[in-house]
Amino acid sequence: MTRVGIGYDSHRFLAGRPLVLGGVAVPHTHGLAGHSDADAIAHALTDAILGAAGAGNIGQLFPDTDPRWKDADSMEMLVTAHELVRDRGLTLAQADCAVITEAPRLAPHLLAMGAALAARLGVESGAISVKAKTNEGMGFIGRGEGLAVIAVAVLEAR
Ligand code: MG
Questions:
Q1: Which of 19, 38, 40, 59 is deepest in the core (most CB within 10 A)?
Q2: 18 C-alpha to center of ligand 1: Å?
Q3: Residue 1 pLDDT more than 90?
């Protein structure tokens, strides 16, 4: 049995916060606004994993009205979501994440992000791909107001 899920997330840039993506701190003038640490890769991948299992979504599992998740480590949330689907007899086999942003340039950090995600989720190194592209200057991403991430996750029976 193979199950596929998709996740999407977007966050506004905010000065004075660290930029954390895929568990990796990326040097930049701005971080991302959010209740948690606003790691949009971790959030999109969490939703993809939950979606593949038919297990709801990140907002249900980690409500942003709950003070427990204030400034939370989103990689911890991702691991919790994976544990939930593992309890249902599934495990992450592979994932692909696309970050859409005009800045900063993420190419030097992509391999580290994939490795960090794989390590935290306890899956084979190389099972998680992270890539980046710009939005060709269009829309909110093009204006540098924020970034977006799309993730696809494949789950298999344990
Ligand atoms: Mg988010």
A1: 40
A2: 15
A3: no
